[in-house]
Amino acid sequence: MRYLILLLAFVLIQCTTTEQVDSSALSLAYAKSQFSATIDFDNPANYANQSKPAYISKDNVGGNGIIDKQATLGRILFYDKNLSIDNSISCGSCHKQAIAFSDTAIQSVGVSNGKTIRHSMRLINARFANESKFFWNERANNLETQTTMPIQDHLEMGFSGESGRGNLNTLLVKLQAIPYYPELFTWAYGDNRVTETRMQSALAQFIRSIQSFDSKYDAGRSQVQNDQASFPNFTALENQGKTLFLTPPVFNANSERVGGGFGCQGCHQAPEFDIDPNSRNNGIIGVIGSTDLDVGVTRAPSLRDVVNEQGNVNGPLMHTGAVRGLNNMLGHYNDINAPARNTNLDPRLRPNNIGQKLRMTPNEITAVVQFLRTLSGKNVYVDKKWSDPFVK
């Protein structure tokens, strides 16, 4: 009898264990049915341990270290139109992989034909920035905070709590009821609770994983000791453009350049080419569709992948989208207008308190444009781990 009892107990344990294994195996059943063509949940993509050049020293990942499962969840959230009030807009609608996670439109279209106030910023190498604040006017103290602000914007994704619309809590309830999200949050975080903090963490991890270090610039920089050295893989014109980019200008009393380079490095610091956190505005102070002024724009995306490998600009430039093409961009900095109404113009653009006049020559402009083209990679535009998982 004692032996029979032990045998029955053993069978019961085995059955329970089998049930647990089966339950675990089925825990992602719905998610796998939805994303099997684009995501391998058994072998998630490498977001956490991507290589980067030894000369890249900046990293603003902070306490939210990248974890493959959580970044995968972030990818799904980034592209899921369910995050908008009418299921029409995702983060990826305004930040398209094919154009360095920016938009071709000056103003991206939101729900109910709403329009963004500023042009959608490129998201390349957001992790490798000295400036930890986000949005053009730096209103988000970190990337985590930034990620859910467009979701709650009335014009963008619509969960504003205004005009009869639901708020962020409404979205959390909505996502909790979508069958793949309880599975995915359990897979990534250990239980099925959909919270704003977890959404922010996952989205920020995915965005920080988007990196581009396979450019001609990187191939050259890896062969020399510093940026000032001549890059062996560069043409003479590209090396000239690099020198002009890195070298500060020498001005006379009228703020006219009489020597040196363009001083771009002062605000867009190599090798990350992100904006200096101490920067103020660059002289473009317009508001799209208005005569109002916006002097509080002090953030800018990295200059990496400002154009694609073919030299095509990845969307309009500046927060107003008013500048088209690298030549026009350099033309803006060539002759800075410094009206009294611009109370926040960067001092580096107004030596002697007069707007700079760089007196660029056509050859110099061509050289800097050629150098800026070397900052563009290839992989970031095509890597499937950053692509839309809803496209089968």
Describe the 3D structure.
- The chain is mainly α and 392 residues long.
- Helix content is 31%, strand content 4%.
- It contains twelve helices and six strands.
- It has helices spanning 2-25, 29-35, 68-79, 91-94, 143-147, 168-176, 180-189, 196-209, 216-221, 236-246, 326-334, 362-373, and strands at residues 249-251, 257-260, 268-269, 274-275, 286-287, 290-293.
- The strands form three sheets. It has a two-stranded antiparallel sheet with strand order 1-2. A two-stranded antiparallel sheet has the order 3-4. The protein has a two-stranded antiparallel ribbon with strand order 5-6.
- The longest helix has 24 residues, at 2-25.
- The N and C termini lie far apart (59 Å).
- Mean pLDDT is 94; it is low at 1-25.
Helix/strand layout:
Layout: H1 2-25, H2 29-35, H3 68-79, H4 91-94, H5 143-147, H6 168-176, H7 180-189, H8 196-209, H9 216-221, H10 236-246, E1 249-251, E2 257-260, E3 268-269, E4 274-275, E5 286-287, E6 290-293, H11 326-334, H12 362-373
Antiparallel strand pairs: 1-2, 3-4, 5-6
Helix pairs in contact: 2-7, 3-8, 10-12
